[in-house]
Amino acid sequence: MMQNDVVVIGGGISGLSLAYYCVQAGMKTTLLEKNDTIGGSFASPQYNAHGKNFWMELGAHTCYSSYQNLLDIVEGCGLKDSIIPRAKVPFTLFVNGKIKSIVSQLHILELLVSVPNLFKLKKTGLSVSSYYSKIVGERNYREVISHFFNAVPSQKTDDFPADMMFKSREKRKDMLKNYTFTNGLQSVARAISAKSGLNVFTSQDVNSVVYKDGLYEIRSAGGGEYSAKTLVFATPSSVTSKLLKGIQPDIANHLGQLKAADVDSVGVIVRKENVKLKPVAALIAPNDVFFSVVSRDTVPDDNYRGFVFHFKPGLDEKTKRSRITEVLGIGFSKIEHTESKQNTVPTLRLGHHEWLEKTDALLKGNKSLLLTGNYFGGMAIEDCVSRSKSEFARLKG
Ligand SMILES: Cc1cc2nc3c(=O)[nH]c(=O)nc-3n(C[C@H](O)[C@H](O)[C@H](O)COP(=O)(O)OP(=O)(O)OC[C@H]3O[C@@H](n4cnc5c(N)ncnc54)[C@H](O)[C@@H]3O)c2cc1C
Which Pfam families has this protein been placed in (predicted)? Predict the structure, then answer.
């Protein structure tokens, strides 16, 4: 059995950032990832055509100057030079087969009457629907703005806590306001996993965790066996809950209260001349089989365009394929390459702050067990890295 100071289960940005902090502190660290590639929702598959690379984002796509903890890691991995700007192309609505600007769909009078509430109303304790319908007006919220919010975690967000959807954070003045990386966000995951001193094993579907004589024993479906003094879970809450059942039933039950949504993400690459759609950052669909289509037009390419459809779960391949070709206005034969991925996104509810306080109370005094992920302080990348940073501080404190 391979012995470690720390084993991290889950190779998305939450697990990778926690592993990064451990390795920087000189701890012998192993990270185990179920899939055959590292990154989780940092997924930028590379398509090699005519000797040139084209990538698209099957998950996260944008970082901001306010992602200060992420930026520290990016710099620590020597990746700062691969930060690139995103082209200014619009986020638009897609209604009845037509692109519509957000402004064109808003009821301006209602907006003008409501917007002063921005200076009076606090987000704390309010749901997304109750807060934002007062800021933009009920009809604007229902017909336009709610669809943008739904597109962020690819699920209905009416009942999300308003203060967990978009946070204002201090920005780094020397950074681009929003950006990506030369080879997409997954290059951050690859750079962390290449950090010297970090052992990364992919295709390790962890299915058993036992605690014996002060050590965790971790086993994966493929027969991998690892042991560690400290164990980090960086998996979706349902996976962490299941694996903790035998050793920490209280925490397992507490995590079991959370819900999450699966997002079926399908990306297609097409030659530029075959698609008439004008350049967009994303299409947001109010009442469709997908929540959004995120495009690669933010990093334009001479030959190709990429479109990632974030579908509602449970659709068959034929339905997805025909909707893709309808929206892009092309025949199926014009699709040069397809990539698919399932993402898991938490379903946050009012009362989540109290849930989080209880989680941390249950973990108090137990420095050998760390929990991170996108279901603690929020689902944005910086929320994940911040949670990892504070869990690492708990380990060292
Ligand atoms: C479509 C989409 C777009 C987004 N866009 C943005 C954006 O532009 N900006 C932003 O800030 N945020 C964005 N987000 C949110 C953010 O990207 C995610 O919340 C964050 O990347 C999640 O990271 P994570 O490590 O917590 O989880 P994940 O990335 O889901 O990683 C969890 C990992 O655990 C692994 N795993 C699961 N079970 C096991 C097991 N039994 N054994 C071993 N490994 C296991 C999984 O395979 C996975 O790799 C987006 C999210 C999605 C889904």
Answer: Amino_oxidase
